Amino acid sequence: MKVLITGAGGQIGCDLAHMLKERGHYVIATDIASRPLAMCADQWHHLDVSDKNSVISLFRQDEPEVVYHLAAILSARGEEIPQQTYKVNEIGTFNVLEACREAHVRQLMYCSSIAVFGPGTPDPTPDDCFLQPTTMYGVTKVGGELLGNYYHSRWGFDFRGVRFPGLISATLPGGGTSDYALFMYVNGVRIGAYESFCRPDTRIPLMYMPDALRAIVELSEAPRDRLGRCVYNIAAFSPPAQEIADVVAKHVPGVKLSFRPDPGRQAILDSWPNALDDTCAREDWGWSPNFDLEAMSADLIPKIRDLLDDHIQTPPPGRF
Ligand code: AKB
Fold first, then answer.
1. Is residue 10 over pLDDT 50?
2. Residue 175 CA, closest ligand 1 atom number
3. Which pLDDT value is given to residue 186?
4. Dist. CA 274–CA 192, nearest whole Å
5. Under CATH, which number does the domain 168-205+237-271+291-310 receive?
6. What is the dihedral of CA 94, 98, 104, 110, to 10 degrees?
7. Exposed, middle or buried by CB within 10 Å (0-12, 13-18, 19+), for 221?
8. Fewest beta carbons less than 10 Å away: which of 62, 93, 103, 155?
């Protein structure tokens, strides 16, 4: 099957392309940025999702059956450039939905996030709960969910999405507020130290990348008549930041992990749920995570060491 990915140059793209190739798909990867070294897609195209004509003409030319829409500016970066974030995330999602309609794409897979929620949600937070995010990123993710639901009910378009927790992988993120968790691992292994920009008691939903990829691919493959909704919470683990530091320290002897909260990013973290209730995903399409914090750490730390040995990536200095 022909699958197209938008925003494939970000944290998820290379790993998702790899998983889709392993499942036998022909993968067309697109991004406004240049092709990452580790990208294994069959084709790479430059694509700015905020440019509607380019999105429509690429979809018409390549005729993908399924589109994974990853292109987005994340929460911390989004607060620095809210107008651009609206353009890429909200208008970009509208353009992708319109292009799907015009080019007869069968299905759109949408990456939403815990950032659709704001302060005061129940713990754990269910799928159907008030959505009052405090960030532009969160506002645009709510907008994308609602647009997708509209295309589903108005035209029967097969729109599906997951609300990702903060994702942890050996591949570097770009501008997220959940990135403190990932950098404890990456910088802890790479330079033996990391100062987190949050309090040690900060607790948000997190997930290891292989589970996140499996979730979105399994949701794509689930029979539509089993799905009671378009967008699902998915959950794995929600440790306090101090617990992550303790696990990293156990695996990386001598690592120095400290905490210096940044008020802006701490406020965003405090506005997000502590944990998600993913009962609907479990019941409708059999979702279940494979990795808890300990299993992830045992798998991830050797991968980060391998990447450093291969010099595939070096974290940019001062990046969140
Ligand atoms: C972010 O921190 O902005 C993202 C997210 C949780 O959606 N990783």
1. yes
2. 3
3. 97
4. 28
5. 3.90.25
6. 0
7. exposed
8. 155
CA of 247 to the centre of ligand 1 (A): 22
Give me the residue label for tokens 């002897």.
253
Residue spans of the domains in the chain: they are 2-165+207-233, 168-205+237-271+291-310
Atom of ligand 1 nearest to the CA of 178: 2
Gap from CA of 27 to ligand 1 centroid (Å) = 25
Amino acid at 200: P
Instruction: Name the one residue in this structure whose structure tokens are 């911390």.
Output: 76
Domain 2-165+207-233, CATH homologous superfamily name and number? NAD(P)-binding Rossmann-like Domain (3.40.50.720)
pLDDT bucket at 311, cuts 50 / 70 / 90: low
Q: Is 255 in the pocket of ligand 1 (CB under 6 A)?
A: no
Q: How confident is the model at residue 265 (pLDDT cuts 50, 70, 90)?
A: very high
Q: What is the pLDDT of residue 309?
A: 75
Give backbone dihedrals phi and psi of 250, rounded to 5 degrees, phi first: -65, -35
135-156: pLDDT as tens digits:
999 999 999 999 999 999 999 9
- Catalytic residue annotation: 137
What confidence tens digit (pLDDT) does each residue in 144-192 have?
Answer: 999 999 999 999 999 999 999 999 999 888 899 999 999 999 999 999 9
Q: Does residue 307 have its Cβ closer than 6 Å to ligand 1?
A: no
